[in-house]
Amino acid sequence: MDDNHELRDLEVQSPEHDREHLLGDNHEESPPIADQPPPPDKAPTQRVQPPSRHQQLRSRWRSIAWKAEVSSWIASASCFIALVIALRVFDGHPLPQLKFGITPSAIVQILSTLGEFFLEISYGAGVGQLKWLNALQKKPLADFHTIDEASRGAWGSVVLIASRRGGLVAALGAFITIVALGIGTFVQQALNYDTIYTASGGNALMPIAQYMNGVGSAPIDHGGTIDGVDSVLTSAPYLAFFNPPGTNFTATAHCSTGNCTWSSYQTLGFCNTCKNLTRQLKRDKIRIVPHKLTDEAYETNVYTLPNGFGLTGIQPGEMNNKVDFSITNGVVNVSTTIAPERWDSVAFPHNGSVLLSAFAVAAAPGTIPEQPDQTKFSPDEMVGDMYAAPVAFECMLQFCVRNMSAIFVNGTLRETVTSVWTNETQGLLPQYEHYTFRPPHSEEFRVLGTSKDSTADWLNFLLVGSAYSSDVDSLGFAASSDLMQIVRIAMNSSEAGFPDLMDNLANSLSLSLRSASYQPSPIHGKAFSPISHAVVTWEWLILPAFELVASLVFLVIVMMRTRKAGLVPWTNNILAVFFHGFDQRPVIHGVDESETAMEKESDGLLVQFQAREEGGRIVNVNS
């Protein structure tokens, strides 16, 4: 029985018993709550914050493909727009005074350089991406290399176009790269500066002549003088004859800015009008008996105008020791209408404003006047290439009113005679009266009678003279005065020699008269100050605009092809070549591993970019 009790104690307890045992006796008193230790503190749960909007946008931006290229194109377009705005602001305006001495050209250059820099990033990346797109098909490795070189500069682009690799899109990118070299030059040509002249408050004074009063005297032969001649005129004939033909005798004007204009003004002066009378010369043969020596008599030609003035050929000189005499051959003879002989005018017989007319009969340029047989001096007739008929002119000096305009530019004055007015019906006046000249709608100009007569006498003294040669067959000569020597040189050099001298004389006398102290105050013109202003030639911006549009079109084409092919835009990233290049290095036949050898080997090595789980690789597909 006891053993049974022990076995009963060893029996497995029921589940309920076990549960009651784990839970304890309900009838037992639980210890007081205060005696139980408090439960340990739990660590606070970390609450995950959602990403901010800024972080989300930044994450999305980093995941956007072509962000650098698109941003670069936008930056380039912004520079171009800023360039156009700057040129529009500068166009037609004076040169601005900017801080630090910055010029508009510098601003244009900076914007052009920045725009070109950003644009190069855009189209360069597009060309670089084409090598990966091209590698999707079986192509020689040389194509990959050529396109890569084209993405790095103009020379590689030239090689790409010349080798015809990469297709039309690659050729477009290469063309854009090459043309981009001209952007800077074209932009610089768009901005130029012209100088304009704006009216300023400066002084512009031009002397004029309104009167001729004959204040002073002029020297004549043997220390004598002629009263009633303005002293300011005395140097004019010498300035006229000793200056080249067509000399521009201009006044001494005052222009405070160095750039002035006088649109129209009038001044009293002298005008010259010449007429060629050669056809009216009459040749006669005369017999000369020198010094009553009948056995020395000879014949010579004399050339005369209708008024009797002319040129005599061979003339006898003074006797030498009462044994022999020299001869001279006339080559120039000059006289006036108020000479003692009172030669009548041939070409201008009825002109009332004439001061005097000067006649000149002289040998034609480079010749000697023809003469008959000279039994005493030469058995041959004086004819041939060296001998010719003389020429004759009448030049009339008269008072006139000159209508003129003038321009003073950069310190140089240039006057222009626009028209002249003469009073050809002016009659003779008493000695102390005035010759008056009143052009239509103009003030009155006056010449004192005594001044007119005295000036004519003085000019007659200067202009009457001759020149001759001592040998009948020589161009050498002697002259009666310094002025006659100039006349001979001028008429021997040019058919218009004498008219040119008389033109110079009229212009020189007119200029000198304007400096007389009794003349009215100088007339006022307009003074201008030079200002540089910008001129923009917009056509020069066609090339930069074309580059901008063409690069955008090119970039969009490359982006679309990349997306369609499912490629990542690696462009020119060298890391892509390392991560997605050959699994196994291609073998170069031979031991030469130079650049040339690699390029030659790449022509025959077909490669293709094949997609794989790790992102794809370039594989050799020759085998």
TrEMBL record:
<feature type="transmembrane region" description="Helical">
    <location>
        <begin position="540"/>
        <end position="560"/>
    </location>
</feature>
<keyword id="KW-1133">Transmembrane helix</keyword>
<feature type="transmembrane region" description="Helical">
    <location>
        <begin position="167"/>
        <end position="187"/>
    </location>
</feature>
<keyword id="KW-0472">Membrane</keyword>
<feature type="compositionally biased region" description="Basic and acidic residues">
    <location>
        <begin position="1"/>
        <end position="30"/>
    </location>
</feature>
<feature type="region of interest" description="Disordered">
    <location>
        <begin position="1"/>
        <end position="56"/>
    </location>
</feature>
<feature type="transmembrane region" description="Helical">
    <location>
        <begin position="70"/>
        <end position="90"/>
    </location>
</feature>
<protein>
    <submittedName>
        <fullName>Uncharacterized protein</fullName>
    </submittedName>
</protein>
<dbReference type="InterPro" id="IPR021514">
    <property type="entry name" value="DUF3176"/>
</dbReference>
<keyword id="KW-0812">Transmembrane</keyword>
<dbReference type="Pfam" id="PF11374">
    <property type="entry name" value="DUF3176"/>
</dbReference>
